[in-house]
Amino acid sequence: MHRFWLFGFCLTLFVHASAGQATSPQAPKSADASISSAPLASILAPPPGYKFPSGLMYVYGVEWHLFNAGTATVRMDADGAGHRVTATAESAGVVNTLYRVHDRFEATFDPRTFCSLTINKHAEEGPHKRETTVKFDYGQNKTLLDEKNLKTGELKHEQNDIRGCLTDVITGFYYLASLPLHPGYQTMLPINGGGKTTVAEAKVEAREQLKVPAGTFQTLRVRVEAISGPLKDKGSVSVWYSDDSNHVPLQMRSKLGWGTLMFRLQRIDKSN
User: What is the pTM of this model?
Assistant: First the structure.
């Protein structure tokens, strides 16, 4: 159950892939093979006049096999010339007994391009405690990752080659919301957490009416699946966005070999 909440949150399995890369040493390569061998994937700049959902916090209840698994939040805030996305997760109930989770994830991105700039992760998951930072150096076409094991004090520094503008696992949810979603629409996006890049394919499958604790909504169901990189053929994530200009992520479902995680929107708060 390592990285338990992250499997279900945002581009859930992509978070796990990023975490796995951060703990497995690998030699730098001359080019990012996961990008070069995959179909063309790119990040598009937001459309003119796009309004970011700054100052809003989405609060989700998390379920695992119908059990209460905990609470997750995600919010966006203006941060100088950039924007900051913050996600948190706290386990509860039977999951907390089996595997306690206390995670915080922060990412910054350029609102002019949607390119990710930095990632900061604090992870307390069962017996594991780590601090990880990632910087995207587009001038040098590299990611710079530094990680500290908070239990052993072990330090690690890693560089990986990248190509072009990338998004991360949390910002990627907001990026998808900025696109002109409609049934049949599909796109590919490169996602990176400091290691190898995963190329994900997102498809809008259908319009559906959906009831969550926050209310009843008309939605667009989007399926996200890795088509290259560490998570190819490892599972998929479905996201239900509100079928309006806001594209609020109302529900997320992650199907994996060990079970299904469901995130349902409880409410939307103004962040402090």
Answer: 0.84
- CA of 99: how far to CAs of 95, 124, 126, 256, 263, in Å? 6, 10, 5, 18, 18
What's the Rg (C-alpha) of the chain? 17
Residue-range definition of the domain harbouring residue 184: 4-270
217 sits in the region (left: phi over 0; alpha: psi -120 to 50; else beta) called beta
Query: With contact defined as beta carbons under 8 Å apart, do 230 and 224 qualify?
Result: no
- 253: tokens are 């479902």
Helices (H), ranges, the chain: 4-8, 12-22, 33-36, 93-98, 171-177
pLDDT tens for 177-212 read 999 999 999 999 999 989 889 899 999 999 999 999
**Is-contact 209 216, C-beta < 8 A?**
yes
- Joined tokens for residue 207: 């319009």
pLDDT of residue 40: 72
CA terminus-to-terminus distance, the chain: 32
Provide the number of structural domains found in the chain: 1
CA angle 167, 34, 106 (to 5 degrees): 25
Note the pLDDT tens digit of each residue in 117-164: 999 999 888 888 999 999 999 999 999 999 999 999 999 999 999 999
Q: How many CB atoms lie within 10 A of CB 42?
A: 11
